Amino acid sequence: VRWHTADLLDPAAAQTVVAEAAPECLLHLAWYAEHGLFWTSPENVRWVEATLRLLRAFADTGGLRAVVAGTCAEYEWTPEGGVLGEDAPLRPATLYGAAKNATRSVAQALAAEIGFELAWGRIFFPYGPGEAPTRLVPSVARALLGGNEAAVTDGRQLRDFVYVDDLAAAFVALVDSDVCGAVNIGSGEAVAVHEVVSLVGEALGRPDLIRFGALPGRPGEPATLVADVGRLRDEVGFRRRVPLREGVARSVAWWQAHGSGALDPAAAQR
Amino acid sequence: VRWHTADLLDPAAAQTVVAEAAPECLLHLAWYAEHGLFWTSPENVRWVEATLRLLRAFADTGGLRAVVAGTCAEYEWTPEGGVLGEDAPLRPATLYGAAKNATRSVAQALAAEIGFELAWGRIFFPYGPGEAPTRLVPSVARALLGGNEAAVTDGRQLRDFVYVDDLAAAFVALVDSDVCGAVNIGSGEAVAVHEVVSLVGEALGRPDLIRFGALPGRPGEPATLVADVGRLRDEVGFRRRVPLREGVARSVAWWQAHGSGALDPAAAQR
After folding, report:
1. pTM, two decimal places
2. Closest-CA residue in chain A for B41?
């Protein structure tokens, strides 16, 4: 392994790093992803530009296969939601979703014209060690680790939680396959948010501190957002390895090891 | 009027020129548009990047209203086609259409987040003096001016031809309005291609040189591509000023004045 480091927001960087590495395959995960801010930030637009620049540089040096991280936020999110296949309607409601979806559309058309392969992994709801401390699992875990109550919603909405190691392995499998186009990256399992929260409580032996329904649900939030993982399973040949209980246990253990104030303390305030 | 000149493909240019001009309004027409090549060229991707960069720079300096040139190629083109309203399905079949549509999608989401106005003029089939010599009107006019036969298709397909002065005036009206979102820029009139060709023959007094049906039609080309101009007419308040016969006569006169070999002779070979 040889590491090449570059800031892809620098207009010349992609060309330089791609020329140095002359890769046959590209796995592009970089994007603006600051928790709570990424949905609406103009930074998304800079990453559209940066991603297209990178793909052009990759194509210019004869790259053969590119795999890029997309998002389930490219789909239309109705109040009901559902189990979403890759052919579900694309109607992103956020700048983040619009930016990813637009990038995919241009990338696919460019790949078709130039003749390189392009796969687009639509990520559902990742979790795992090291994530932003204000996200679901860390925020509950950190409260309970500190002996504090955790106020949460009723948690009835169903989501597709995918453990970070599975997410990474799914992308590696996608790179190693010859599958093109959009591929959902999820577990395929519909899990109620309250189940995840309960598993955190169990793992830490403090289910008594959890206050379901103490926070109001977000109006208009889809009842169900779950991946149809048929393509990932049958075409890419990937099956998840880390079940939910195990993934939550590992995540909680990470916060136990790193302390409830781990990572950026300022971020925890947001 | 003060002119500022910049190459928008230069990553720093937009920021510099927008900072100099500090515009309240932006009318952005620039794109790669070389006849015959623009449908499939990777240059389209560079113009996605350049356009988004320009819009970011415009927003950063407090710009209030941006109007950008889109295209009827953003719409799905079925074999039948039809009279297309702005809510017609968006399913571009070309890299050009995908690039424009993606740019619109990101631009609209950015405008909504930042709070500037964005209108997007979807141009139908422009014609007029000075266009590429291999396009429909010039290619027929140049043949007839040289005393040569003009081989054309049967020309039964219906299109929405918009004279260049009307196109420009429609964009000016759109800038001066407060209409946001997509607005079709066309004549609203369904005209058979053979009618345009016949008008060129009449204008030059040589209808005898036109050979309808000597060229095969393009397979899968939509039968009808016509703009529903309801928004342009009723919301923007624009009506076209130059009827087809007059527009063709002016175009033909331009080629008479500039000679059949006018403009780039190399382009005429393509």
Report:
1. 0.94
2. A113
Question: In this predicted model, what pLDDT tens digit does every residue of A229-239 receive, in sequence order?
Answer: 999 999 999 99
Within 8 A of B95 by CB-CB distance, chain A residues are 106, 109-110, 112-113
Do the chains contact at A52 and B56, CB–CB below 8 Å? no
Interface contact flag, B49 A46, Cβ < 8 Å: no
User: What is the ipTM, given to two decimal places?
Assistant: 0.92
Judge: B113–A40 Cβ closer than 8 Å, yes or no. yes
Q: What is the mean pLDDT of residues A212-229?
A: 93
Name the nearest CA neighbour of A51 among A95, A89, A108, A2: A108
pLDDT tens digit sequence for A153-194: 999 999 999 999 999 999 999 999 999 999 999 999 999 999
If you search the block for the tokens 């939030």, which residue do you land on?
A: A221
Contact A42 B56 (CB under 8 A): yes
B263 to chain A, minimum CA–CA distance in Å? 29
pLDDT at residue B265 in the model? 43
The pLDDT-based confidence of A52 (bands split at 50, 70, 90) is very high
Separation between Cα atoms, residue A208 and residue A148, nearest integer Å: 10
Note the residue count of chain B: 270
Q: Do B99 and A112 touch (CB under 8 A)?
A: no
Distance of CA B41 to the CA centre of its chain: 17
Rg (CA), chain A: 19
Those residues whose C-beta lies under 8 Å from the C-beta of residue A90, and which sit 6 or more positions away, are: A74, A75, A76, A101
- Find chain A residues with C-beta within 8 A of B52's C-beta: 45, 48-49
Which residue in B40, B48, B53 is closest to A113 by CB distance?
A: B40
**Mean pLDDT calculated for residue range A208-217:** 95
Both structure tokens of B180: 């946001």
Contact: A55, B48; criterion CB under 8 Å: no
Statement: residue B269 has pLDDT above 50: no
Considering only CB atoms, A42 lies closest to which of B45, B92, B110, namely: B110
C-alpha count within 13 angstroms, C-beta hemisphere, residue B179 = 23
Among A124, A106, A99, A118, smallest CA distance to A26 is for A118
Q: CA-CA distance, B138 to B200, in Å (whole number)?
A: 9
